[in-house]
Structure prediction request, 190 residues.
Amino acid sequence: MAEKDENTPKPASVTSDDLSGLTDDERRKRGRAPDPVLPGQNAPKAQPPTPVHAAFVLAILAALVVVAGQVLTVLLKQQLVDRAVEQVQKSGQKVDVAQVQANANTLVWAMLIGALCFGALLVLFAWKAREGTRSARSIVTLLAVLGIVFELGVIRSIFSVVASLALIVMLILLYLPKVADYFPKVGKNL
Prediction:
């Protein structure tokens, strides 16, 4: 193998001066390691394209709508219990109201905690996708698909429809051809 001469000029795209001020993912796209951030220094801020920023805002909106729907469910729990008891009694079966009440209590609180966790994860990974991280975009996609299936498959309300529409538009914006370069595919060297 021939050794490279150290006096050979390097291409302009590889010099360290050109890489200053780039985000970690922009540096990775150029085949470089992320710049270390020393104490007291600020990390460079990403400048996402408008569709990516709009997708982030839609992720926040969807998370808020999902949580708001579950908060309303907690507030209307007694009405749901009364309706369930009434339907069971109409069918001629015996029902233990205390048992239905306890089960409803557990269900609505579990759904609220799940909605809070879902919303937090969605916003967290949408933020990372907003910074240009391709793997975060993949996780946001998975969370959005799971959210859409759950919202439209299990729970049907105006909240679930609005949240699902926001998630669908968010996914469309994240996968537009004009934002593909913002999510660089990191090369693997083995």
Notes: Residues 50-176 form one domain. Helices lie at 16-19, 24-29, 50-75, 77-90, 97-130, 134-153, 158-174. Residues 31 and 189 are 10 Å apart (CA to CA).
